[in-house]
Structures are given as C-alpha cells and as structure tokens.
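Tokenised fold entry reproduced for absentees:

. . .
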Amino acid sequence: MRLLFAFVLLLSFTQQGYGQQRRQLLNKNASRQAKAVYSYLQDMYGKKMLAGQMTSNWGDDELKYVKDSTGKLPAIRGLDFIDSAKNNDEIKYARQWWRKGGIPTIMWHWGAPSIGSGYENSKKQIDIDKIFMDGTPEHIAFWKEMDEKAALLKKLQRANIPVLWRPFHELNGDWFWWGKQGPERFKRLWVTMYNYYVNEKGLNNLIWVLCYMDVPDAAWYPGDAYVDIAGPDTYKKEQSQIEMYQRTRAIVGDVMPIAFHETGVPPDPTASFKLGAKWVWFMEWHTNFLREVPVNHLRYVYDNDLVVTLDEVPNIVKQYGGKRTFWEWLRDLF
C-alpha cells in the first residue's frame, strides 16, 4: 500500500509538468508588480503563450495593423532604446501599455560605446576590454549610457511599472558589438549591467530576459543567478523551432520560462505545443516583417485558444501580487 501511495504521489508531481514549480525573481528586492508579472508568466508557461508585437517609433503603427487584421491586440508590447532622442517616448508607451492592461518589454540596440548611437553603430566593433579600463573613451561612454538608461527605467519604477528587460539581444551572433569578441566578454558585460542596475541603482522593476540567436549555446549563459527568462529568436524559415526550444531548455532547465523573443512569422501555437515548444510568449518583429505575414495566419494565431491576447490578460497585480507589506507600501509611496 505504501509503495502504491508513493507511486501515485510521484505520478501526480510528474503530471504537473510546466508552470507548477516556481522560481523567484533573482532580485530579492523586486517590486510587487515585477513579482506579479513573473508569477503570471510562470502560471501561463506550458499552458498558453502570450502574443507579443514589437513596435517601431518611426511612423508605422503595428498595433493598429494587428487590431485591424485580427480584431485583437497583443498582450506584450516590444519597445527599443534605439534612438536617444526618442527614448522618452518609449517610456511613455510603456506606461500606456501597462495602464491598458498589457506588459511592456524593452530592448536596447546599443550603439558601440565611444562610436555613437543607433542600429548601424550597434554593429561596429570596439575593444570590450577597454570598457573596463578607467579613463578610456569606451569606459566613459559605457557608463554614461548605463546611467542614462537607468534613469529612464527608474521613471517606470516610480510609476510602479515592471519591465521585461532584454539587453544585449542576439548575444551569440557576431553582428552586434557585445557578441563580436566571444562569450567571456559578453558574460562580463551582462553581469556588470545586472550588478550595477540591481545592486547600485536599485532598479527593482526589471525582469531579466536573455536572448539567444538561432542556436542557443551554454558557453554564453551568464548563469542562473543573473537570468529570469531565456529564449532564442530567429528569422530563418529553415531553423527548427523545437530544436531552439530544446537547446534553451537544456541550458536553463525545466522551470525557467522560455520565450520566442523575435520572429518574422508567428509560430503556429497548436503545432508548437504538440511538438513540445511551449513558448511563454512570442514576439513578431515590426514594420515590413509584420506586413508580410499572411493575414489569415495572423488571424489564426490571435484567435487560437492557446494564445493570450490583451483582452485576456487579467489584472496581474491584483491576481498575482498578493498583499503589500508595510515596507512595500512605504517604498511605493516614495
């Protein structure tokens, strides 16, 4: 009888599968809102995937296009610190999206320090070691940029808005400056940013999102102490999505949520879940990438029962945030 009971108990834990075990955010001082979003994403992981849409800030209205095409809006809106002159607009859009009931994610096409900002400069090469040498142009520019972006993210923290923070994306590619000199230098950059933003700047509203490209590689993984969510992106039609998913899972384990960070065509939710690629979210890229997706496919994805759209996102903080402690109340007040 005891053996039978033990077997039934073991079976019940095995059948729980995704989304039952829970990780805590790495930042022990994480805001109530960040904790709530992370709990919600873990609750969805393995059950459904959230629809995400990257938006541009140069004239295209991707959200309107999605709404007109499907009658719905994505649960996650993607934003980018790509243009210093427009970064305050990205903060405004993050505020609007959170207040609308959605979740903002912010990436950063970081122009190579000492060279300049913008997409083209993010592909320029610098000597990463010089970032860590006092007085070099690379060092000065790096820390100036870090402080500027920290100040922007702090605005969202003061407004009690959490962010899926995705810096240094496509890290194992060789096109952005942070990936051009191998995994060890990349990991030093990631850990430096994490420690500075969390421990010195007190940015407690960030959920740290690691983004591989095409073929996730454990050599580039900063470690469980520095990553809340991981996943790949790809624009290659021949790239196996289940292989990307399985490679990521082999690196981060069974509990950490895995996202499909960028794609030219949204995955088929039913086929993905059937194969075992249970992305916690996908994010369609902006402008022409979105407009080239067949409208019938976009509508199929947004209407799929496995996909969460904006209208289906609950009041995350109310449902998953728990009660505020006195110290959280005091911290939120100031």
